[in-house]
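pasting input
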Amino acid sequence: MAERELKKKQAPARTEEVVEEAPPATDKGEKLKAELDDLLDEIDEVLEDNAEEFVRNYVQKGGQ
Amino acid sequence: MAIPKVIGMETEYGIILRGAAESNPIAASSALINAYVAQVQRKVGWDFEDEAPGNDARGFAREGSTPPEVETNLVNTVLTNGARYYVDHAHPEYSTPECASPRQVVVYDKAGEKILERSMEAAARVLPPAQGIVVYKNNSDRKGNSYGCHENYLVDRTVPFSRIVQQVIPFFVTRQIFTGAGKVGTEAATSEPVPFQLSQRADFFEEEVGLETTLKRPIVNTRDEPHSDAQKYRRLHVIVGDANLAEVATFLKVGVTALFLAMVEDDWLAEHDFVLAAPVQALRKVSYDLTLRQPLELAAGRTMTALEIQWELHDLGRKYAEERGLDCLGGHEAGRAVLQRWEAVLAGLESDPMALSGQLDWVAKYNLLDAYRQRHGLGWDDHRLAAMDLQYHDLRPERSLFSRLPMERLTTDEEVVTAITEPPPDTRAYFRGKCLQRWSSAIAAANWDSLVFDLGTDPLRRVPMMEPLRGTAAHVDSLLEGCSSPAELLERLGS
Protein backbone atom coordinates (compact mmCIF):
# COMPACT_ATOMS: atom_id res chain seq x y z
CA MET A 1 0.00 0.00 0.00
CA ALA A 2 2.72 2.48 1.02
CA GLU A 3 4.67 1.66 -2.09
CA ARG A 4 1.69 2.45 -4.26
CA GLU A 5 1.14 5.81 -2.57
CA LEU A 6 4.74 6.70 -3.23
CA LYS A 7 4.22 6.11 -6.92
CA LYS A 8 1.16 8.33 -6.90
CA LYS A 9 3.08 11.17 -5.30
CA GLN A 10 5.61 11.00 -8.07
CA ALA A 11 2.93 11.27 -10.69
CA PRO A 12 2.56 15.09 -10.92
CA ALA A 13 6.19 15.44 -11.96
CA ARG A 14 5.39 13.78 -15.24
CA THR A 15 3.22 16.58 -16.48
CA GLU A 16 6.22 18.88 -16.71
CA GLU A 17 8.29 16.50 -18.74
CA VAL A 18 8.64 16.99 -22.45
CA VAL A 19 6.55 14.49 -24.36
CA GLU A 20 8.96 12.44 -26.38
CA GLU A 21 8.43 10.83 -29.74
CA ALA A 22 9.52 7.40 -28.58
CA PRO A 23 9.72 5.73 -25.19
CA PRO A 24 12.73 7.05 -23.32
CA ALA A 25 15.90 5.00 -23.38
CA THR A 26 17.15 4.04 -19.94
CA ASP A 27 20.02 2.03 -18.52
CA LYS A 28 17.86 -1.03 -18.31
CA GLY A 29 16.61 -0.35 -21.83
CA GLU A 30 20.19 -0.08 -23.06
CA LYS A 31 21.04 -3.41 -21.47
CA LEU A 32 18.08 -5.03 -23.19
CA LYS A 33 19.23 -3.51 -26.45
CA ALA A 34 22.63 -5.09 -25.92
CA GLU A 35 20.99 -8.47 -25.46
CA LEU A 36 19.01 -7.87 -28.60
CA ASP A 37 22.26 -7.30 -30.48
CA ASP A 38 23.12 -10.98 -30.21
CA LEU A 39 19.72 -11.84 -31.59
CA LEU A 40 20.11 -9.35 -34.43
CA ASP A 41 23.38 -10.98 -35.41
CA GLU A 42 21.47 -14.16 -36.19
CA ILE A 43 18.16 -12.82 -37.33
CA ASP A 44 18.96 -12.16 -40.98
CA GLU A 45 19.09 -15.90 -41.51
CA VAL A 46 15.43 -16.35 -40.65
CA LEU A 47 13.98 -13.18 -42.12
CA GLU A 48 11.93 -13.53 -45.28
CA ASP A 49 14.23 -13.22 -48.32
CA ASN A 50 12.35 -10.52 -50.14
CA ALA A 51 10.70 -8.30 -47.57
CA GLU A 52 8.89 -6.11 -50.06
CA GLU A 53 7.38 -9.03 -51.96
CA PHE A 54 6.50 -10.87 -48.76
CA VAL A 55 4.67 -7.85 -47.35
CA ARG A 56 2.89 -7.24 -50.68
CA ASN A 57 1.73 -10.85 -50.95
CA TYR A 58 0.48 -11.09 -47.40
CA VAL A 59 -3.18 -10.43 -48.17
CA GLN A 60 -6.04 -11.66 -46.01
CA LYS A 61 -9.79 -11.58 -46.32
CA GLY A 62 -11.33 -9.44 -43.61
CA GLY A 63 -12.69 -11.46 -40.73
CA GLN A 64 -14.49 -10.55 -37.56
CA MET B 1 -21.84 -11.10 -5.59
CA ALA B 2 -20.17 -11.35 -8.96
CA ILE B 3 -20.64 -14.74 -10.59
CA PRO B 4 -17.61 -16.88 -11.51
CA LYS B 5 -15.98 -15.49 -14.61
CA VAL B 6 -15.97 -18.43 -16.99
CA ILE B 7 -13.80 -17.29 -19.90
CA GLY B 8 -13.14 -18.42 -23.45
CA MET B 9 -11.12 -16.93 -26.29
CA GLU B 10 -11.54 -17.26 -30.06
CA THR B 11 -8.68 -16.54 -32.45
CA GLU B 12 -8.92 -16.13 -36.21
CA TYR B 13 -5.49 -16.80 -37.65
CA GLY B 14 -3.99 -15.25 -40.76
CA ILE B 15 -3.23 -17.90 -43.40
CA ILE B 16 -1.22 -18.07 -46.61
CA LEU B 17 -0.58 -20.92 -49.03
CA ARG B 18 2.99 -20.76 -50.27
CA GLY B 19 4.18 -22.25 -53.53
CA ALA B 20 0.84 -22.16 -55.35
CA ALA B 21 -0.11 -19.94 -58.28
CA GLU B 22 -3.45 -19.16 -56.72
CA SER B 23 -4.49 -19.30 -53.12
CA ASN B 24 -8.03 -19.68 -51.86
CA PRO B 25 -7.98 -18.97 -48.12
CA ILE B 26 -11.18 -20.93 -47.46
CA ALA B 27 -9.79 -24.01 -49.21
CA ALA B 28 -6.44 -23.58 -47.45
CA SER B 29 -8.12 -23.22 -44.05
CA SER B 30 -10.21 -26.33 -44.70
CA ALA B 31 -7.15 -28.33 -45.82
CA LEU B 32 -5.26 -27.20 -42.73
CA ILE B 33 -7.96 -28.22 -40.26
CA ASN B 34 -8.89 -31.44 -42.05
CA ALA B 35 -5.25 -32.52 -42.16
CA TYR B 36 -4.98 -32.05 -38.40
CA VAL B 37 -8.25 -33.65 -37.43
CA ALA B 38 -7.68 -36.64 -39.73
CA GLN B 39 -4.52 -37.52 -37.85
CA VAL B 40 -5.80 -37.12 -34.30
CA GLN B 41 -9.43 -38.11 -33.99
CA ARG B 42 -12.71 -39.02 -35.58
CA LYS B 43 -14.33 -35.82 -36.80
CA VAL B 44 -17.34 -34.69 -34.80
CA GLY B 45 -19.23 -31.81 -36.37
CA TRP B 46 -20.58 -28.67 -34.83
CA ASP B 47 -24.27 -28.43 -33.96
CA PHE B 48 -25.77 -25.12 -35.09
CA GLU B 49 -29.04 -25.53 -33.17
CA ASP B 50 -28.11 -22.83 -30.68
CA GLU B 51 -26.49 -20.26 -32.97
CA ALA B 52 -28.16 -16.85 -33.07
CA PRO B 53 -25.43 -14.27 -33.59
CA GLY B 54 -28.00 -11.70 -34.74
CA ASN B 55 -29.57 -11.26 -31.32
CA ASP B 56 -28.77 -7.90 -29.82
CA ALA B 57 -28.04 -7.48 -26.12
CA ARG B 58 -29.71 -4.09 -26.10
CA GLY B 59 -32.95 -5.97 -26.61
CA PHE B 60 -33.96 -4.75 -30.03
CA ALA B 61 -34.10 -6.55 -33.37
CA ARG B 62 -31.60 -6.47 -36.19
CA GLU B 63 -33.19 -3.64 -38.08
CA GLY B 64 -30.70 -1.58 -40.03
CA SER B 65 -27.72 -3.84 -39.44
CA THR B 66 -26.53 -6.98 -41.12
CA PRO B 67 -26.88 -10.07 -38.95
CA PRO B 68 -23.64 -12.03 -38.98
CA GLU B 69 -23.73 -15.04 -41.22
CA VAL B 70 -23.42 -18.49 -39.80
CA GLU B 71 -21.41 -20.54 -42.23
CA THR B 72 -22.76 -24.03 -41.74
CA ASN B 73 -21.18 -25.73 -44.73
CA LEU B 74 -17.52 -25.30 -43.81
CA VAL B 75 -15.21 -27.47 -41.74
CA ASN B 76 -16.28 -27.26 -38.15
CA THR B 77 -15.07 -29.65 -35.51
CA VAL B 78 -14.93 -30.17 -31.78
CA LEU B 79 -11.66 -31.32 -30.24
CA THR B 80 -11.17 -33.63 -27.27
CA ASN B 81 -9.87 -30.71 -25.20
CA GLY B 82 -13.32 -29.19 -25.53
CA ALA B 83 -12.26 -26.56 -28.07
CA ARG B 84 -13.89 -25.71 -31.40
CA TYR B 85 -11.67 -25.69 -34.49
CA TYR B 86 -13.21 -24.41 -37.71
CA VAL B 87 -13.18 -22.21 -40.77
CA ASP B 88 -14.64 -18.78 -40.21
CA HIS B 89 -14.60 -15.87 -42.65
CA ALA B 90 -11.77 -17.42 -44.69
CA HIS B 91 -9.59 -17.97 -41.62
CA PRO B 92 -8.84 -20.98 -39.45
CA GLU B 93 -10.32 -20.26 -36.04
CA TYR B 94 -9.64 -21.91 -32.72
CA SER B 95 -11.97 -21.28 -29.78
CA THR B 96 -10.62 -22.37 -26.43
CA PRO B 97 -12.83 -24.50 -24.22
CA GLU B 98 -14.54 -22.69 -21.37
CA CYS B 99 -11.92 -21.92 -18.72
CA ALA B 100 -12.36 -21.28 -15.01
CA SER B 101 -9.38 -18.97 -14.45
CA PRO B 102 -7.31 -16.46 -16.41
CA ARG B 103 -4.19 -18.60 -16.28
CA GLN B 104 -6.13 -21.55 -17.67
CA VAL B 105 -7.09 -19.39 -20.67
CA VAL B 106 -3.38 -18.83 -21.30
CA VAL B 107 -2.75 -22.59 -21.22
CA TYR B 108 -5.56 -23.32 -23.70
CA ASP B 109 -4.63 -20.38 -25.92
CA LYS B 110 -1.05 -21.69 -26.11
CA ALA B 111 -2.43 -25.19 -26.79
CA GLY B 112 -4.29 -23.58 -29.69
CA GLU B 113 -1.01 -22.28 -31.13
CA LYS B 114 0.43 -25.79 -30.88
CA ILE B 115 -2.64 -27.21 -32.64
CA LEU B 116 -2.15 -24.74 -35.48
CA GLU B 117 1.55 -25.61 -35.60
CA ARG B 118 0.76 -29.32 -35.81
CA SER B 119 -1.88 -28.56 -38.43
CA MET B 120 0.73 -26.86 -40.63
CA GLU B 121 2.92 -29.97 -40.34
CA ALA B 122 -0.01 -32.27 -41.10
CA ALA B 123 -1.00 -30.17 -44.12
CA ALA B 124 2.57 -30.27 -45.44
CA ARG B 125 2.29 -34.07 -45.59
CA VAL B 126 -0.78 -33.98 -47.82
CA LEU B 127 -0.02 -30.95 -49.99
CA PRO B 128 2.19 -31.10 -53.13
CA PRO B 129 5.87 -30.94 -52.07
CA ALA B 130 6.40 -27.36 -53.26
CA GLN B 131 3.45 -26.06 -51.27
CA GLY B 132 3.00 -25.19 -47.63
CA ILE B 133 0.45 -23.48 -45.44
CA VAL B 134 1.70 -20.82 -43.05
CA VAL B 135 -0.35 -19.46 -40.18
CA TYR B 136 0.07 -16.12 -38.40
CA LYS B 137 -1.36 -15.18 -35.04
CA ASN B 138 -1.99 -11.52 -35.77
CA ASN B 139 -4.98 -9.32 -36.59
CA SER B 140 -4.22 -7.45 -39.78
CA ASP B 141 -2.66 -7.88 -43.21
CA ARG B 142 -1.41 -4.26 -43.12
CA LYS B 143 -3.72 -3.47 -46.05
CA GLY B 144 -6.90 -2.66 -44.18
CA ASN B 145 -8.13 -6.21 -43.65
CA SER B 146 -8.54 -7.29 -40.05
CA TYR B 147 -9.52 -10.52 -38.35
CA GLY B 148 -10.22 -10.94 -34.69
CA CYS B 149 -9.29 -12.40 -31.38
CA HIS B 150 -12.45 -12.34 -29.31
CA GLU B 151 -12.83 -12.86 -25.60
CA ASN B 152 -15.96 -14.18 -23.90
CA TYR B 153 -16.89 -13.64 -20.27
CA LEU B 154 -19.82 -15.05 -18.33
CA VAL B 155 -21.80 -12.18 -16.84
CA ASP B 156 -24.83 -12.08 -14.57
CA ARG B 157 -27.96 -11.47 -16.67
CA THR B 158 -29.44 -9.17 -14.06
CA VAL B 159 -26.72 -6.54 -14.61
CA PRO B 160 -28.17 -3.82 -16.86
CA PHE B 161 -26.41 -3.97 -20.22
CA SER B 162 -26.32 -0.17 -20.34
CA ARG B 163 -24.15 -0.15 -17.22
CA ILE B 164 -21.73 -2.59 -18.79
CA VAL B 165 -21.51 -0.47 -21.94
CA GLN B 166 -20.94 2.79 -20.10
CA GLN B 167 -18.30 1.47 -17.73
CA VAL B 168 -16.44 -0.91 -19.99
CA ILE B 169 -15.66 1.49 -22.84
CA PRO B 170 -12.99 3.55 -21.02
CA PHE B 171 -11.54 0.31 -19.69
CA PHE B 172 -11.26 -1.19 -23.18
CA VAL B 173 -9.77 2.00 -24.60
CA THR B 174 -7.07 2.20 -21.93
CA ARG B 175 -6.20 -1.50 -21.47
CA GLN B 176 -4.40 -1.36 -24.84
CA ILE B 177 -1.31 -0.18 -22.99
CA PHE B 178 -0.74 -3.78 -21.91
CA THR B 179 -2.89 -5.79 -24.34
CA GLY B 180 -1.54 -4.32 -27.58
CA ALA B 181 0.38 -6.64 -29.88
CA GLY B 182 2.10 -3.72 -31.64
CA LYS B 183 2.03 -2.69 -35.29
CA VAL B 184 4.32 -0.82 -37.66
CA GLY B 185 2.40 2.07 -39.26
CA THR B 186 -1.33 2.54 -39.49
CA GLU B 187 -4.20 1.40 -41.70
CA ALA B 188 -6.43 4.35 -40.86
CA ALA B 189 -6.45 7.85 -42.32
CA THR B 190 -4.39 9.97 -39.94
CA SER B 191 -3.19 13.55 -40.01
CA GLU B 192 0.15 12.68 -38.42
CA PRO B 193 2.49 9.85 -39.40
CA VAL B 194 2.26 6.78 -37.15
CA PRO B 195 5.63 4.98 -37.15
CA PHE B 196 4.56 2.30 -34.67
CA GLN B 197 1.44 1.80 -32.56
CA LEU B 198 0.47 -0.26 -29.54
CA SER B 199 -2.45 -2.13 -31.09
CA GLN B 200 -3.12 -4.24 -34.16
CA ARG B 201 -6.85 -3.55 -34.03
CA ALA B 202 -7.38 0.09 -32.98
CA ASP B 203 -7.39 1.27 -36.61
CA PHE B 204 -10.51 -0.77 -37.35
CA PHE B 205 -13.02 0.50 -34.79
CA GLU B 206 -15.57 3.06 -35.90
CA GLU B 207 -18.46 2.85 -33.44
CA GLU B 208 -18.93 2.78 -29.68
CA VAL B 209 -21.65 0.12 -29.50
CA GLY B 210 -23.15 -2.25 -32.05
CA LEU B 211 -23.85 -5.70 -33.35
CA GLU B 212 -21.34 -5.74 -36.21
CA THR B 213 -18.08 -7.65 -36.06
CA THR B 214 -16.79 -7.41 -39.63
CA LEU B 215 -17.50 -3.81 -40.62
CA LYS B 216 -17.99 -0.60 -38.67
CA ARG B 217 -16.64 -2.54 -35.72
CA PRO B 218 -17.88 -1.31 -32.33
CA ILE B 219 -15.83 -1.05 -29.12
CA VAL B 220 -18.65 -2.90 -27.35
CA ASN B 221 -20.21 -5.73 -29.32
CA THR B 222 -23.85 -6.39 -28.48
CA ARG B 223 -24.15 -9.96 -29.74
CA ASP B 224 -26.52 -11.63 -27.31
CA GLU B 225 -25.90 -15.34 -27.60
CA PRO B 226 -25.29 -16.68 -24.09
CA HIS B 227 -24.55 -20.33 -25.04
CA SER B 228 -25.93 -21.11 -21.59
CA ASP B 229 -29.06 -20.47 -19.53
CA ALA B 230 -30.29 -17.21 -21.05
CA GLN B 231 -32.40 -16.43 -17.99
CA LYS B 232 -29.33 -16.31 -15.77
CA TYR B 233 -26.37 -15.45 -17.93
CA ARG B 234 -24.98 -13.14 -20.52
CA ARG B 235 -21.85 -13.86 -22.54
CA LEU B 236 -20.00 -10.59 -23.05
CA HIS B 237 -18.42 -10.95 -26.49
CA VAL B 238 -15.35 -8.71 -26.62
CA ILE B 239 -14.02 -7.97 -30.10
CA VAL B 240 -11.70 -5.05 -29.39
CA GLY B 241 -8.60 -7.00 -28.32
CA ASP B 242 -5.46 -8.10 -30.15
CA ALA B 243 -4.26 -11.68 -30.45
CA ASN B 244 -1.32 -11.95 -28.06
CA LEU B 245 1.67 -14.25 -28.17
CA ALA B 246 3.15 -13.05 -24.89
CA GLU B 247 1.68 -15.14 -22.07
CA VAL B 248 1.76 -12.27 -19.60
CA ALA B 249 -0.20 -10.09 -22.05
CA THR B 250 -2.89 -12.75 -22.53
CA PHE B 251 -3.03 -13.36 -18.78
CA LEU B 252 -3.49 -9.67 -18.04
CA LYS B 253 -5.96 -9.16 -20.88
CA VAL B 254 -8.40 -11.80 -19.67
CA GLY B 255 -7.57 -11.56 -15.97
CA VAL B 256 -7.94 -7.81 -15.61
CA THR B 257 -11.02 -7.77 -17.84
CA ALA B 258 -12.65 -10.50 -15.76
CA LEU B 259 -11.85 -8.59 -12.56
CA PHE B 260 -13.17 -5.40 -14.09
CA LEU B 261 -16.43 -7.12 -15.09
CA ALA B 262 -16.81 -8.48 -11.56
CA MET B 263 -16.58 -4.90 -10.31
CA VAL B 264 -19.20 -3.81 -12.83
CA GLU B 265 -21.50 -6.62 -11.72
CA ASP B 266 -21.19 -5.57 -8.08
CA ASP B 267 -21.68 -1.93 -9.06
CA TRP B 268 -18.32 -1.11 -7.55
CA LEU B 269 -17.61 1.70 -10.01
CA ALA B 270 -20.86 3.61 -9.68
CA GLU B 271 -19.24 6.67 -8.10
CA HIS B 272 -16.36 6.77 -10.54
CA ASP B 273 -16.91 8.30 -13.90
CA PHE B 274 -14.27 7.65 -16.54
CA VAL B 275 -16.63 8.22 -19.48
CA LEU B 276 -14.58 9.46 -22.41
CA ALA B 277 -15.64 12.42 -24.52
CA ALA B 278 -14.77 10.64 -27.78
CA PRO B 279 -14.07 6.92 -27.25
CA VAL B 280 -13.38 5.91 -30.86
CA GLN B 281 -10.86 8.70 -31.30
CA ALA B 282 -9.41 7.91 -27.88
CA LEU B 283 -8.92 4.27 -28.87
CA ARG B 284 -6.60 5.39 -31.67
CA LYS B 285 -4.99 8.13 -29.64
CA VAL B 286 -3.95 5.63 -26.99
CA SER B 287 -2.72 3.19 -29.61
CA TYR B 288 -0.63 5.84 -31.39
CA ASP B 289 0.96 7.21 -28.20
CA LEU B 290 4.14 5.34 -27.35
CA THR B 291 4.91 7.87 -24.62
CA LEU B 292 1.77 6.79 -22.72
CA ARG B 293 1.41 10.43 -21.68
CA GLN B 294 -1.24 11.88 -23.96
CA PRO B 295 -4.23 13.16 -22.03
CA LEU B 296 -7.68 11.84 -22.92
CA GLU B 297 -10.69 14.09 -22.59
CA LEU B 298 -13.39 12.85 -20.29
CA ALA B 299 -17.04 13.73 -20.80
CA ALA B 300 -16.97 15.43 -17.39
CA GLY B 301 -14.44 17.96 -18.68
CA ARG B 302 -11.16 16.90 -17.06
CA THR B 303 -8.42 14.89 -18.73
CA MET B 304 -6.61 11.70 -17.74
CA THR B 305 -3.99 9.55 -19.43
CA ALA B 306 -4.69 5.90 -20.19
CA LEU B 307 -2.18 4.95 -17.52
CA GLU B 308 -3.89 7.16 -14.93
CA ILE B 309 -7.27 5.59 -15.67
CA GLN B 310 -5.75 2.12 -15.36
CA TRP B 311 -4.09 3.08 -12.05
CA GLU B 312 -7.40 4.29 -10.64
CA LEU B 313 -9.15 1.14 -11.79
CA HIS B 314 -6.37 -0.92 -10.24
CA ASP B 315 -6.80 0.86 -6.91
CA LEU B 316 -10.54 0.23 -7.07
CA GLY B 317 -9.79 -3.39 -7.89
CA ARG B 318 -7.51 -3.74 -4.90
CA LYS B 319 -10.17 -2.35 -2.57
CA TYR B 320 -12.73 -4.60 -4.21
CA ALA B 321 -10.49 -7.59 -3.56
CA GLU B 322 -10.10 -6.63 0.09
CA GLU B 323 -13.83 -6.29 0.67
CA ARG B 324 -15.39 -8.81 -1.68
CA GLY B 325 -12.62 -11.31 -2.36
CA LEU B 326 -11.58 -12.65 -5.73
CA ASP B 327 -13.17 -16.08 -5.78
CA CYS B 328 -14.93 -15.25 -9.05
CA LEU B 329 -11.53 -15.32 -10.83
CA GLY B 330 -11.04 -19.01 -10.22
CA GLY B 331 -10.05 -18.74 -6.57
CA HIS B 332 -8.50 -16.12 -4.35
CA GLU B 333 -4.90 -16.95 -5.28
CA ALA B 334 -5.67 -16.77 -8.99
CA GLY B 335 -7.25 -13.39 -8.40
CA ARG B 336 -4.30 -12.11 -6.36
CA ALA B 337 -1.97 -13.08 -9.18
CA VAL B 338 -3.97 -10.91 -11.57
CA LEU B 339 -3.93 -7.90 -9.23
CA GLN B 340 -0.21 -8.21 -8.54
CA ARG B 341 0.76 -8.52 -12.17
CA TRP B 342 -1.54 -5.66 -13.12
CA GLU B 343 0.19 -3.42 -10.56
CA ALA B 344 3.69 -4.50 -11.58
CA VAL B 345 3.01 -3.90 -15.26
CA LEU B 346 1.40 -0.48 -14.68
CA ALA B 347 4.41 0.48 -12.55
CA GLY B 348 6.71 -0.70 -15.33
CA LEU B 349 4.79 1.25 -17.96
CA GLU B 350 5.09 4.34 -15.78
CA SER B 351 8.81 4.13 -15.06
CA ASP B 352 10.42 2.26 -17.95
CA PRO B 353 8.11 0.66 -20.53
CA MET B 354 10.99 -0.92 -22.44
CA ALA B 355 11.86 -3.01 -19.39
CA LEU B 356 8.61 -4.90 -20.01
CA SER B 357 9.89 -6.36 -23.27
CA GLY B 358 9.81 -9.86 -21.81
CA GLN B 359 6.15 -9.50 -20.85
CA LEU B 360 4.18 -7.44 -23.34
CA ASP B 361 3.92 -8.01 -27.09
CA TRP B 362 4.00 -4.39 -28.19
CA VAL B 363 7.12 -3.70 -26.18
CA ALA B 364 8.86 -6.88 -27.33
CA LYS B 365 8.09 -6.11 -30.96
CA TYR B 366 9.03 -2.44 -30.66
CA ASN B 367 12.36 -3.24 -29.02
CA LEU B 368 13.29 -5.82 -31.63
CA LEU B 369 12.29 -3.74 -34.62
CA ASP B 370 13.80 -0.54 -33.28
CA ALA B 371 17.12 -2.26 -32.63
CA TYR B 372 17.11 -3.64 -36.18
CA ARG B 373 16.09 -0.25 -37.55
CA GLN B 374 18.94 1.51 -35.77
CA ARG B 375 21.52 -1.08 -36.75
CA HIS B 376 20.66 -0.76 -40.43
CA GLY B 377 19.78 2.93 -40.41
CA LEU B 378 16.22 2.33 -41.64
CA GLY B 379 13.14 4.53 -41.55
CA TRP B 380 9.98 3.13 -39.96
CA ASP B 381 8.47 2.90 -43.45
CA ASP B 382 11.06 0.38 -44.63
CA HIS B 383 9.62 -2.89 -45.98
CA ARG B 384 11.98 -4.90 -43.81
CA LEU B 385 10.30 -3.60 -40.66
CA ALA B 386 6.84 -4.33 -42.05
CA ALA B 387 8.03 -7.85 -42.88
CA MET B 388 9.42 -8.33 -39.38
CA ASP B 389 6.13 -7.08 -37.96
CA LEU B 390 4.33 -9.90 -39.80
CA GLN B 391 7.00 -12.46 -39.06
CA TYR B 392 6.80 -11.76 -35.33
CA HIS B 393 3.46 -13.63 -35.51
CA ASP B 394 4.56 -16.52 -37.79
CA LEU B 395 3.69 -19.74 -35.94
CA ARG B 396 6.42 -21.85 -37.55
CA PRO B 397 9.02 -22.32 -34.81
CA GLU B 398 11.91 -21.94 -37.26
CA ARG B 399 10.52 -18.63 -38.58
CA SER B 400 8.77 -17.07 -35.62
CA LEU B 401 10.51 -13.95 -34.37
CA PHE B 402 8.50 -14.04 -31.15
CA SER B 403 9.86 -17.46 -30.25
CA ARG B 404 13.44 -16.13 -30.46
CA LEU B 405 12.81 -13.52 -27.80
CA PRO B 406 13.42 -14.18 -24.09
CA MET B 407 9.76 -13.97 -23.07
CA GLU B 408 8.50 -14.76 -19.59
CA ARG B 409 6.42 -17.92 -19.38
CA LEU B 410 3.43 -18.51 -17.13
CA THR B 411 2.81 -22.03 -18.41
CA THR B 412 4.97 -25.11 -18.80
CA ASP B 413 5.50 -27.00 -22.05
CA GLU B 414 4.09 -30.08 -20.39
CA GLU B 415 0.76 -28.55 -19.40
CA VAL B 416 0.36 -26.93 -22.81
CA VAL B 417 0.91 -30.27 -24.57
CA THR B 418 -1.58 -31.92 -22.22
CA ALA B 419 -4.12 -29.19 -23.00
CA ILE B 420 -3.96 -30.08 -26.71
CA THR B 421 -6.04 -33.18 -26.01
CA GLU B 422 -7.28 -32.93 -22.42
CA PRO B 423 -10.17 -30.63 -21.40
CA PRO B 424 -9.99 -28.27 -18.41
CA PRO B 425 -11.29 -30.19 -15.38
CA ASP B 426 -13.42 -27.46 -13.86
CA THR B 427 -15.95 -26.37 -16.50
CA ARG B 428 -18.54 -28.15 -18.66
CA ALA B 429 -15.82 -28.50 -21.32
CA TYR B 430 -14.69 -31.48 -19.26
CA PHE B 431 -17.87 -33.43 -19.99
CA ARG B 432 -17.71 -32.49 -23.69
CA GLY B 433 -14.06 -33.46 -24.03
CA LYS B 434 -14.28 -36.68 -22.07
CA CYS B 435 -17.36 -37.88 -24.00
CA LEU B 436 -15.52 -37.16 -27.25
CA GLN B 437 -12.48 -39.07 -26.03
CA ARG B 438 -14.51 -42.09 -25.06
CA TRP B 439 -17.45 -42.25 -27.45
CA SER B 440 -16.81 -40.00 -30.44
CA SER B 441 -18.44 -42.52 -32.79
CA ALA B 442 -21.71 -42.13 -30.87
CA ILE B 443 -21.67 -38.33 -30.89
CA ALA B 444 -23.45 -36.84 -33.89
CA ALA B 445 -22.61 -33.24 -33.09
CA ALA B 446 -21.63 -30.93 -30.28
CA ASN B 447 -21.76 -27.28 -29.41
CA TRP B 448 -21.10 -25.09 -26.38
CA ASP B 449 -24.27 -25.99 -24.52
CA SER B 450 -25.16 -29.48 -25.69
CA LEU B 451 -23.95 -32.84 -26.94
CA VAL B 452 -26.01 -34.79 -29.47
CA PHE B 453 -25.73 -38.57 -29.27
CA ASP B 454 -26.57 -40.97 -32.09
CA LEU B 455 -26.95 -44.46 -30.68
CA GLY B 456 -27.95 -45.88 -34.04
CA THR B 457 -31.43 -46.96 -33.03
CA ASP B 458 -33.34 -44.18 -31.32
CA PRO B 459 -33.82 -40.65 -32.54
CA LEU B 460 -30.83 -38.40 -31.83
CA ARG B 461 -30.56 -37.60 -28.13
CA ARG B 462 -29.51 -34.16 -26.99
CA VAL B 463 -27.80 -33.71 -23.63
CA PRO B 464 -28.14 -30.05 -22.64
CA MET B 465 -25.29 -28.36 -20.74
CA MET B 466 -26.78 -25.00 -19.88
CA GLU B 467 -24.60 -24.45 -16.80
CA PRO B 468 -20.98 -23.62 -17.73
CA LEU B 469 -19.73 -24.81 -14.34
CA ARG B 470 -21.52 -28.16 -14.35
CA GLY B 471 -20.08 -31.22 -16.02
CA THR B 472 -16.73 -30.78 -14.30
CA ALA B 473 -14.42 -33.63 -13.30
CA ALA B 474 -15.77 -33.40 -9.76
CA HIS B 475 -19.33 -33.77 -11.08
CA VAL B 476 -19.02 -36.41 -13.76
CA ASP B 477 -15.81 -38.44 -13.32
CA SER B 478 -17.42 -41.19 -11.29
CA LEU B 479 -20.48 -41.17 -13.56
CA LEU B 480 -18.31 -41.56 -16.68
CA GLU B 481 -16.13 -44.21 -15.05
CA GLY B 482 -19.21 -46.20 -14.15
CA CYS B 483 -20.63 -46.24 -17.68
CA SER B 484 -19.44 -48.81 -20.20
CA SER B 485 -21.37 -47.34 -23.13
CA PRO B 486 -22.97 -44.08 -24.24
CA ALA B 487 -26.37 -45.76 -23.96
CA GLU B 488 -25.69 -46.39 -20.30
CA LEU B 489 -24.57 -42.80 -19.84
CA LEU B 490 -27.79 -41.47 -21.36
CA GLU B 491 -29.86 -43.82 -19.27
CA ARG B 492 -28.18 -42.65 -16.08
CA LEU B 493 -28.49 -39.01 -17.10
CA GLY B 494 -32.18 -39.60 -17.70
CA SER B 495 -31.98 -38.01 -21.16
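fyi Chain A touches chain B at residues 4, 7-8, 11, 14, 17, 19-26, 28-29, 32-33, 35-37, 39-40, 42-43, 46-48, 51-52, 54-55, 57-64 (CB under 8 Å).
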